[in-house]
Design a protein that fits this description.
eight-stranded parallel sheet, alpha/beta
């Protein structure tokens, strides 16, 4: 249920209303927007009389939310959420402007990750990605350097000042992520509900990828699991879904971006590398992301893609990434200008 409060409502009356609603066995989330205050009620609202609440002089409207996701719902939080990632180079705000997250699929050595980190930072990336724990379809494929990979990623962070993004596979690994700035939940773990619950108890930004066979509503329900624990710092990521098409690794659902913006207040980024699986398709899909309103892209960059231990065919070289950043930003600027017309 959502209760919209009138502009300039009496603060004392508002506090009393919130206290009353809490006595009804629901939690109350107050969203202070530019033009209005919204109270989002989470829990069993069946015992609350809508007409009684609507009749209060400080209340503009009352409406029930029919969708199963409440906290992630734009009705619950009308203004866009901006996720802030602290950085030695100045905080990165996902949801303001256009962000680039870049780095190798897998961390292979200290020399490799620091070299790539320095290159992508110079090219304009704000966050460094790198895989330490690698979920692979084959048990015989390279599984990542695991905890040693995180140590090397932290060395790259120290060398460049860039916040780091890396994927978690199990809640038991959370202690290893104490110094990780953004925790990624991969497509295969999007519905690992016990992991999502644990991440809800942290306050770290969570980059939540859509599963390769999951609907948009299921993605939002996974976000809801995290938000139900109190963590609202969530970045949604569209990374392609499995279809009958075989010419690309997955099919990038570019329409998911405006749909998610319509349904939710959470920022949305695109992962064109995993969506397409071919380096030649990364740039056009990243440009499409900038044109359709995404808040950023996550791109795989490797200093030697031909010899990469993981996902070399979809990785850009540092030089290709630098060129891509310039072209994507041209599209983003043009799209923003068109929206102002």
């Amino acid at each position: 249920m959502v209760v919209v409060i009138k502009n300039q409502a009496n603060e004392e009356r508002l506090v009393k209303l919130i206290d009353f609603l809490k006595t009804q066995g629901v939690s109350v989330h107050e969203s202070l927007g530019h033009f209005q205050t919204v109270l989002g009620l989470v829990g069993d609202t069946s015992r609350i009389d809508i007409d009684t609440i609507a009749g209060l002089d400080i209340v503009e409207t009352v409406k029930r939310i029919s969708e199963p996701y409440k906290s992630a719902n734009r009705k619950f939080h009308p203004d866009d959420t901006v996720v802030t990632v602290p950085s030695a180079n100045g905080d990165v705000k996902i949801g303001e402007g256009f962000a680039f997250i870049a780095g190798p699929c897998s961390i292979e050595s200290e020399e490799q990750i620091i070299s790539v980190a320095q290159s992508v930072k110079k090219a304009g990336a704000q966050l460094l990605r790198g895989g330490a724990f690698k979920p692979r379809t084959s048990p015989y494929a390279f599984q990542g350097l695991r905890s040693d990979g995180i140590k090397l990623l932290l060395e790259a962070k120290k060398a460049t000042g860039m916040p780091i993004v890396t994927e978690i596979m199990d809640a038991s690994h959370l202690d290893l992520f104490a110094d990780v700035d953004v925790i990624q939940v991969g497509a295969r773990n999007m519905q690992n509900f016990e992991l999502l619950k644990e991440l809800g108890h942290t306050r770290k930004p969570i980059l939540l990828k859509r599963g390769l066979a999951n609907t948009i509503e299921e993605l939002l329900m996974s976000a809801e699991y995290i938000m139900a624990g109190g963590n609202e710092n969530i970045i949604l990521c569209e990374r392609g879904i499995r279809t009958f098409e075989t010419k690309t690794r997955n099919t990038l659902d570019i329409s998911a971006v405006p749909v998610l913006h319509e349904l939710s207040h959470l920022p949305v980024i695109i992962d064109p590398s995993h969506a397409c699986g071919k380096s030649g398709l990364v740039l056009p899909m990243a440009m499409a992301a900038a044109a359709c309103g995404a808040e950023g892209v996550m791109i795989e960059v490797h200093n030697d893609p031909a010899n990469a231990l993981c996902d070399g065919p979809q990785s850009l070289t540092p030089e290709q990434f630098e060129s891509a950043v310039k072209k994507v930003m041209c599209v983003f600027d043009a799209a923003q200008a068109a929206l102002q017309m």
